[in-house]
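Let us begin with a simple case.
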Amino acid sequence: MARHSYLCPIRWADMDVYGIVNNVAYLRYLEEARVDFIFRMAPTEGDAFFRDGSVVVEHRIRYRRQLVHRHAPVEIEMWVSDLQSATVAVDYVVKDGDTVYATASTVMAPFDYRTGRPRRLTDEETRFFEKYVEAPLGAR
């Protein structure tokens, strides 16, 4: 199956008082990578998944090594680890080659903001995410 890779810049402001990338910055990194990934769904019309609405249900991050500011971006590799009719889980590895800084997972749910209610994935969304389905991080 396919994986998506995003090269994420590290900003000076991402560091905390100890000189390492702050844990909150990791959530922004994952969001940038996820948006970059999902915008592949409908690049000419904007992103279908976000256009129709989605919400983050859960984040999990496991920090492996300290990441410090530098000019080179860090790679975020991602794939779909679980696909249900009303949720999609995305797993991530934040890394440089074999050096892993963090592993993470985000569960998202499609959401209809007009009605204020959850919705099911459309057939188009399911087809897009199916191309990236792979075993979750812990299953390997």
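The second case is a distinct protein. As before, the sequence precedes its structure tokens.
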Amino acid sequence: MSSESTEVWTGWYRDRSGAEAIVITADGRRVATRIRGVEYTGATFAALSAAEEGGQALGGCVLEWDLPLPVVMDGVSQPATLSCLLTLGERSDLSLTLHYGGAAFESCVAGGDFDGALERVRRQLPPGADFGRRLLQAA
């Protein structure tokens, strides 16, 4: 992944064996993370699978991370944070919460559709407000 077009976020991986800090990278086409020494990649978060070891899908766990996502209101960029929680099991559930202006704007979708969940958050913003940037990946 090119460092000029790669976003990097820190977060947590949790399963029955415990929790560990992780680093997530996204380059516009793929997302990746390393968990307990195994590299997982995929076109979306819900499709993460081991790069080696037979390509086993990541499951039975929770991924959690925050990323900065400024909101522009009346031409002025204001800081905001998007909190992401992805549960991977028999099905994928994605919860997004945008913390902006003292309020929390939430969306939860089955299947891990990041773009769909993000669009639901966008529609809750006050009139005239929009995200201050696009995220690189459609995770």
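The first strand starts at residue 7 and ends at 15. The two ends are 16 Å apart (CA to CA).
Keep these points in mind for the review questions at the end of the chapter.
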